[in-house]
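Weekly puzzle thread! Below is a chain. First person to post its structure in token form gets bragging rights.
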Amino acid sequence: MAHFAQLDDNNKVTQVVVLANEFITDQSGNEVEALGVGFLSGLIGGTWKQTSYHANFRGKYAGIGDIWDGTNFVSPQEPE
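Winning reply:
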């Protein structure tokens, strides 16, 4: 299973979905983010980034309201 975050025009996460491995693996059995992105873009539309449930990459697991900074998902800053 793989998790993907949908981003709005401001790179804010609007939803997170789970895809079965069959949608993200190539013919050699390798996980390929672009396959998941392509599937979701065709099905739902929008911009998608893979996120790690165990925070193994991209900073943290993306949650609704988090921001994609171009490298990692980050929590929005709380007003002081």
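Puzzle host: Confirmed. Bonus trivia for everyone else. The longest helix spans residues 33-43.
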